[in-house]
Design brief:
Radius of gyration: 18 Å
Number of helices: 7
Oligomer: single chain
CATH architecture of the largest domain: Orthogonal Bundle
Amino acid sequence: MLRVELNESLKKAIKSKENCTISTVRLILAALKDRDIAARSKGNPDGISDDLILQLLQTMVKQRRDSTALYKKGNRPELAAREMQEIEIIESFMPEQMAETEIKAAVVQMVKELNASSLKEMGSVMSALRERYAGRMDFSKASAMVKQSLA
């Protein structure tokens, strides 16, 4: 379970005094706690599932990639380097990401499975992909591929 892995990683980082890892894992755990509280208010006493945790991690990676691009554009290489370190730490908790060819194959298969034929069905294709490939697929790339195949 990802929660256990995150907590163990935090303990290990504290013992070895890896400041970047400590702060990044704490950020992940804080975001996870926020999502758990929101889930409990909706009647889910156990908090969010591992799939939703993977989606959270994917969102955090995307945010840091966006920040990195802005820092590089603003000539702040030290901040960009810090964001890249955080990306590496966050990705260490995620399964291996799918290659572009694998994403394309998954998109084609999902479109066939759902018999999708128009852009109106893009939402159902994307939600099915999110459900099946949480944390392993870059959904911005997948979205473009779905749009292209349904157009």
